[in-house]
């Protein structure tokens, strides 16, 4: 039996049964087909109740995304293709929200960056000095 869940990472798989799927008319190009067919797909995942996340993962996603994650796809004329696109977007956003960001380590400025900064200051100072009136002794 195939696994009926969306693969996000090795440890996170979202069951499709936890997704709230709605379809609406997509608008845009496509003429009468786009106006009459419900091909645009919107997926909603409740982060607070999903079984796909551990407590730590849930807290990280809640801090970055909020209590509900929503994605929509109306790119294609087919509802099936839009559903696949929306599922991929949901997995991508969830993967980004789960990523642990490394803390930034402060480093010393390089010699080159110091020289560039000081040269820029000298050039700016000279530009401003050139705007002043000449002194009597010059």
Write a structural description.
- With 138 residues, the chain is an alpha+beta fold.
- It has a domain of 94 residues: Double Stranded RNA Binding Domain (2-Layer Sandwich).
- It has four helices and five strands, in the order βββαβαβαα.
- The strands form two sheets. A three-stranded antiparallel sheet has the order 3-4-5, covered by helices on one side.
- A hairpin with a 5-residue loop joins strand 1 and strand 2.
- The protein is elongated, with a radius of gyration of 27 Å.
- The mean pLDDT is 90.
Set out the fold topology.
Layout: E1 5-7, E2 13-15, E3 19-24, H1 31-36, E4 40-46, H2 55-64, E5 68-73, H3 79-98, H4 111-131
Antiparallel strand pairs: 1-2, 3-4, 4-5
Q: Which key features would you list for this structure?
A:
single chain, 138 residues, alpha+beta, Double Stranded RNA Binding Domain, 3-stranded antiparallel beta sheet, two-stranded antiparallel ribbon, 5 strands, 41% helix
* Low-pLDDT sequence parts: none
Task: Give the N-to-C terminal Cα separation.
Answer: 92 Å
Q: Do you know the CATH architecture of the domain at 5-98?
A: 2-Layer Sandwich
Query: Main beta sheet: strand number and arrangement?
Result: 3 strands, antiparallel
Question: How much helix, percentage-wise, in residues?
Answer: 40-55%
Mean pLDDT equals: 90
Rg measurement, Å: 27 Å
Named CATH topology of the domain at 5-98: Double Stranded RNA Binding Domain
Helix-strand makeup class: alpha+beta
Relative strand content: 15-25%
Biggest sheet strand line-up: 3-4-5
Classify the oligomer: single chain
The overall strand count is: 5
**CATH class placement of the domain at 5-98:** Alpha Beta
Shape: elongated
Order of helices and strands: EEEHEHEHH
Output the number of helix runs.
Answer: 4
